[in-house]
Amino acid sequence: MSRPSSAAGSAGKPAGRFTIPGSGLAKGLAVTLRTMTRKTQTRQYPDVQPELPPRTRGVIGLFEENCTVCMLCARECPDWCIYIDSHKETVPPATPGGRERSRNVLDRFAIDFSLCMYCGICVEVCPFDALFWSPEFEYAETDIRELVHERDRLREWMWTVPAPPALDPAAEEPKEIAAARKAADKLAAQAQAEQPGRPGEGDA
């Protein structure tokens, strides 16, 4: 049996490679010296506000008019930090002889931001666009109980939600906008047809 070559060394280092003691420290000091000569990039927050990306996850805003109390956001939340209370109301029929309907009425919508991990699942799963991300992040509290934002405070965050990006000019018109435009044109045509004719229009 042949003996292993002594050139490889006892530590398993490649043959012919010699490390100078303290070279790692010298390299670290060289990086420090290079950094010391560069211009600092410190921003004096809060006097200078940071430039945040457009999709920053700061705080969640609630557009209450779109909420149907479907509870989907609360069920999908992995931290169980969304609290929703509601009750049912009976809606009278819209036409004579119609049937009464029942609808959910929102009583409470709260988010505990001391538990929230900002995953954004609630915003993504909402089928009616009732939750939106706001880039605001300055809502720290000295009392952890104040981090439970009720629906009134969640609604105030909606004023800080940035506008959505512009659509691609070559893209198709969204179905919602097309349906709303069609309904508006239909109502405008009906209103114009119901208006009485102007004097002298029939005398031709």
Automatic annotation (TrEMBL):
Its cofactor is [4Fe-4S] cluster. Its main location: membrane. This is NADH-quinone oxidoreductase subunit I. One of its GO terms (molecular function) is 4 iron, 4 sulfur cluster binding. NDH-1 is composed of 14 different subunits. Subunits NuoA, H, J, K, L, M, N constitute the membrane sector of the complex. The keyword RNA-binding does not apply. Residues 186-195 have a biased composition (Low complexity). Residues 58-87, 107-136 form the 4Fe-4S ferredoxin-type domain. It is a peripheral membrane protein. It is found in: Cell membrane. It comes from the Bacteria. Binds 2 [4Fe-4S] clusters per subunit. Residues 172-185 have a biased composition (Basic and acidic residues). Pfam families: Fer4. One of its GO terms (cellular component) is plasma membrane. NDH-1 shuttles electrons from NADH, via FMN and iron-sulfur (Fe-S) centers, to quinones in the respiratory chain. The immediate electron acceptor for the enzyme in this species is believed to be ubiquinone. Couples the redox reaction to proton translocation (for every two electrons transferred, four hydrogen ions are translocated across the cytoplasmic membrane), and thus conserves the redox energy in a proton gradient.
